[in-house]
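In the design runs reported in the main text, the only information available to the sequence generator was the tokenized backbone. The following block is the verbatim input for one such run; it is reproduced so that readers can re-run the procedure and compare outputs position by position.
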């Protein structure tokens, strides 16, 4: 028997119709009913055990879980799922994007699944509020766009959560960073240097931020602030996790990252970790770094360390009318290190630069490159060959190492 999409969709529809109105339907009842419907639709056909299981799982996923998305979510080789309307699904696997022969029964089914996703995290998405960020129960990040903004049907993009917490040791093994650079960053985190992780979309900023947070001493109180909770910090007992909230249908009740940063300052944090700064909350993050919360961490979209600092200026200006010199001074006194990540043409994620922000000189940022990525011309098995190399520049601002007593060789 060939289980076509059309046959599976018809079994799902008829099973839902048979069970409609029944109370306390068990998972097994759903699967058994699906098998009975399949027998009715294919009388006299041989149905193998594998086909029976496949049909039961398809219908169960459609009724109780996330329909066609569920099988993709259960596939651990897939890192990203891109739904461009009910009939078009792309996935990313091993850094390569491909289209799948997967579709939803209708736009209505896809919309029902979307509502199932957002309801679990107390979010709302509809025609009045057509854009929403959410997360799945495993922490995977979800972005949703509906009509009238989305013209080709409901759009769902899922950045899947890794099965296990990724540590800096894993990044070393994947050649995303060298042991020497990792040792330096570990010491910098322990010595309470303020670190920004910059990079483009998909460069691994959140993963890297999570890996850095693993070096925070376990006896500290940490506050994490995110749009949708993704960080997996398992080594800190005194951990407070906070997540923003969208406005309700009346446009009230929104809780922004800026609100959460201000609230966190009254919660006696040792460090504050902001998943990503995008706007006016950058000022609050910088002020937190400057007022006794050394060792704080955050990320931002940028094309280089210099671009990250320029973008911070722009973010601050969206929420405050400060002279640019005052903003630059605030940034220079708050940020100690910028770690810049990139996704190269072979789709590998690499640490490209680790830069110290020394201060302001003649109105401009004085940057001290500590590690830079040196690429070789040749490719090996279509993979870029290169290495993060320590420059000859010593670390200028060593006072935090001296005050903390943390020892780091090669400064």
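Verbatim output:
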């Amino acid at each position: 028997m060939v289980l076509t999409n059309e046959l599976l969709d018809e079994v799902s529809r008829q099973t839902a119709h048979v069970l409609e109105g029944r109370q306390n339907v068990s998972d097994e009842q759903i699967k058994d009913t699906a098998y009975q419907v399949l027998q009715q639709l294919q009388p006299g056909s041989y149905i193998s055990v594998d086909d029976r299981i496949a049909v039961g799982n398809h219908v169960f996923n459609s009724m109780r879980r996330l329909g066609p998305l569920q099988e993709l979510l259960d596939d651990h080789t897939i890192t990203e799922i891109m739904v461009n309307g009910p009939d078009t699904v792309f996935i990313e696997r091993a850094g390569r994007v491909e289209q799948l022969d997967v579709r939803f029964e209708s736009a209505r089914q896809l919309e029902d699944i979307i509502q199932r996703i957002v309801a679990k995290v107390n979010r709302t998405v509809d025609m009045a509020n057509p854009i929403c960020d959410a997360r799945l129960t495993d922490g995977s990040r979800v972005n949703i766009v509906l009509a009238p903004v989305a013209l080709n049907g409901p759009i769902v993009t899922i950045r899947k959560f890794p099965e296990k917490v990724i540590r800096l040791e894993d990044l070393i093994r994947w050649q995303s960073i060298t042991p020497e650079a990792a040792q330096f960053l570990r010491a910098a985190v322990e010595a309470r240097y303020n670190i920004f992780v910059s990079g483009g979309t998909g460069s691994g900023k959140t993963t890297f931020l999570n890996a850095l947070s693993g070096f925070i001493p376990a006896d500290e109180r940490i506050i994490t602030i995110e749009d949708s909770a993704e960080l997996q910090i398992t080594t800190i007992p005194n951990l407070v996790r906070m997540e923003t909230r969208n406005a309700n249908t009346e446009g009230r009740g929104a809780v922004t990252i800026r609100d959460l940063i201000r609230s966190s300052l009254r919660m006696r944090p040792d460090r504050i970790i902001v998943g990503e700064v995008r706007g006016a909350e950058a000022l609050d993050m910088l002020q937190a770094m400057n007022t006794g919360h050394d060792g704080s961490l955050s990320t931002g979209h940028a094309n280089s360390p210099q671009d990250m600092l320029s973008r911070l200026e722009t973010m601050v200006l969206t929420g405050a009318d400060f002279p640019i010199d005052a903003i630059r001074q605030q940034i220079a006194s708050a940020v100690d290190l910028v770690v810049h990540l990139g996704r190269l043409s072979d789709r590998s994620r690499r640490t490209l630069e680790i830069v110290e922000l020394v201060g302001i000189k003649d109105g401009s940022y004085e940057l001290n490159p500590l590690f830079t990525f040196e690429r070789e011309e040749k490719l090996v098995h279509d993979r870029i060959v290169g290495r993060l190399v320590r420059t000859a520049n010593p670390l200028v601002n060593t006072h935090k190492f001296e005050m903390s007593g943390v020892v780091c060789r090669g400064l």
